[in-house]
Amino acid sequence: MSIKINHLWSLLVFSLLVRLISLSAYPLMDTTEARYGEMARLMVETGNWLTPQFDYGVPFWGKPPMFTWMSAYGIELFGLNEFAVRAPHWFAGVFTILLIAFMAKKANFNPLIASVVLATCGIFSIAAGAVMTDMALTLTITIAMVGFYYAWLNYEKKKESRIWGYISFAGLGLALLAKGPVAIVLMGIAVFPWLVLQHGFKGAFFTLWQRFPLISGMMLMSAIALPWYIMAEIATPNFLNYFIVGEHFNRFFVSGWEGDLYGSAHDEPKGMIWLFWIQSAAPWSIVLPILTWCRRDKIKQVNKSNPGFISFFICWLLSPLILFTMAGNILPAYVLPGIPALGMLVAVCVTEKDNKWFTSVSLILPVVLMIALLVLNLGKADQKSDRLIYEYTVEEFPIYYVNKRPFSGQFYSQGRAKLLNNKNEIAELTDYYLIGKKRDTNLFFESGYEQCLLLLSAPSKRELYHCSLKR
After folding, report:
1. Which residues contact 406 (CB under 8 A, 6 or more apart)?
2. Among 29, 47, 58, 327, whose CB has the most other CB atoms within 10 angstroms?
3. How high is the pLDDT of residue 318?
4. Vertex 396, ends 390 and 401: CA angle to 5°?
5. Which residues contact 377 (CB under 8 A, 6 or more apart)?
6. Is the pLDDT of residue 220 over 70?
7. Three-state SS string across the chain, please?
8. What is the pLDDT of residues 254-285, one digit of tens each?
9. What is the pTM of this model?
10. What span, in angstroms and rounded, lies between the C-alpha atoms of 165 and 146?
């Protein structure tokens, strides 16, 4: 039985809809999503669209602003809620799927198979709807790679090739706003070895000069990205030093880097990125090696009819793995920029007789996601978020955290929650809320502040008290 078009459409729509519906089904959890969601909220509230802020008046130098812009525009469109800050990242995922489907169709492979693979790939589905930087980078890298391939392929059609070349450089310019210079390194690791495979070492340089608008393209890339970098440095001096040196060298090559201003560095064993790929890209990371072995005859035919096509996507897939092989400070999401190539490679290998197993594998992720949502809604998510606490507060009273204020507290209080630095801040207050973990609030009460009534012991292990001088 062949894989019917209607069947593939059903798989794709089901997978995308499950993820779309999930966007508002659970709170922003500490630390990543709540932190980035709060930065988007701050951007909208303060009107400062130039420099993302870690807190009021505190610039965030860790990442360029594209992911914050995306969530901030979501807030402008849909209001302040979980769906608003996540939805733009879902749309970025859908657009990435469309680009890969476009490439598959032009190469006479089934675009729906490539689309279904991406929509049901673990890390892609998670990131397409999570408030993180990674889907913005993946989309922009995909734009750059698509433009690069067709600029190379259509070199005899000078005008068409030049347009694709500009699209590639525009994608790189946007990638600089999504993640920074690491995007150029990622793409270079993918495309230059591939050009060497096609044309030899010397021929690769000649091909770059002959088939791509290098000078005008780099000018376009700079025109897109450079103004923001200049304005950001002027607005908050020392940004470039921290971002370029700290975030692009020390973060990846200094294990346990202690210069991170916004969290703690991860210290993973060298080569861990490959294990992350197997885990994060499941189930297709497991399927692809089996498919390539079983379909080696088909792969040989594709290589004969379309030289360089398969190796292009292999190089693309491997580029983040190669870049981060020797890095210790990494996360599973770092494999994501190469994941779109996974969809194409599976589409190349799947045949008309693969209906049953392809359907079964494609349903794994949506089913797991629905189970995860059920678990999250049974209270698991509230263990990592303070959203529930703010259902028990009113706007009239100020809110103070003892010892530590989580980002979810900042987001769901809409910036009203403050960290209690000095007890003099509350000495003359008539009514206020006090939030903290039991060990911290106990220390507070031992100091003589006992005029507080416990309102809630939240799943996040924080207690909410209403304090009043009237008691």
Report:
1. 30, 31, 34, 386, 460
2. 29
3. 97
4. 50
5. 25, 26
6. yes
7. CCCCHHHHHHHHHHHHHHHHHHCCCCCCCCCHHHHHHHHHHHHHHHCCCCCCEEECCEECCCCCCHHHHHHHHHHHHHCCCHHHHHHHHHHHHHHHHHHHHHHHHHCCCCHHHHHHHHHCCHHHHHHCCCCCCHHHHHHHHHHHHHHHHHHHHCCCCHHHHHHHHHHHHHHHHHHHHHCCCHHHHHHHHHHHHHHHHHHHHHHHHHHHHHHCCHHHHHHHHHHHHHHHHHHHHHHCCCHHHHHHHHHHHHHHHCCCCCCCCCCCCCCCCCCHHHHHHHHHCCCHHHHHHHHHHHCHHHHHHHHHHCCCHHHHHHHHHHHHHHHCCCCCCCCHHHHHHHHHHHHHHHHHHCCCCCHHHHHHHHCHHHHHHHHHHHHHHHHHHHHHCCHHHHHHCCCCCCEEECCCCCHHHHHHCCCCEEECCCHHHHCCCCEEEEEEEHHHHHHHHHCCCCCEEEEEECCCCEEEEEEECCC
8. 655 566 666 656 677 889 999 999 999 999 99
9. 0.93
10. 9
Average pLDDT, the chain: 90
Q: How far apart are CA 216 and CA 197, in angstroms?
A: 26
Strand 452-457 vs strand 462-468: parallel, antiparallel, or unpaired?
Answer: antiparallel
379 phi and psi angles, rounded to 5 deg: 120, -10
Residue 302: exposure state from Cβ atoms within 10 A (0-12, 13-18, ≥19)? middle
Query: 319: how many CB neighbours lie within 10 A of its CB?
Result: 24
The tokens for 103 are 């490439």
The Cα 282–Cα 364 span in angstroms is 10
Residue 119, token pair as written in the block: 């929509």
pLDDT in tens, 150-171: 999 988 888 999 999 999 999 9
In this predicted structure, the answer to whether residue 3 has a pLDDT above a threshold of 70 is no
Question: pLDDT per residue over 320-352, tens digit each?
Answer: 999 999 877 788 999 999 999 999 999 999 877
280: CB partners within 8 A, 6+ apart: 122, 123, 332, 333, 335, 336
Rounded to 10 degrees, the C-alpha dihedral 295/316/302/2 comes to 50
d(CA 153, CA 148): 9
415, 448 contact by CB (below 8 A): no
For 163, the token pair is 């347009």
The total number of residues shown for the chain amounts to 471
Q: Which two tokens stand for residue 235?
A: 């607005």
Distance (Å, rounded) from C-alpha 237 to C-alpha 233?
5
Give the tens place of pLDDT for each residue, 346-395.
Answer: 999 987 777 788 888 888 888 888 888 777 776 788 899 999 999 999 98
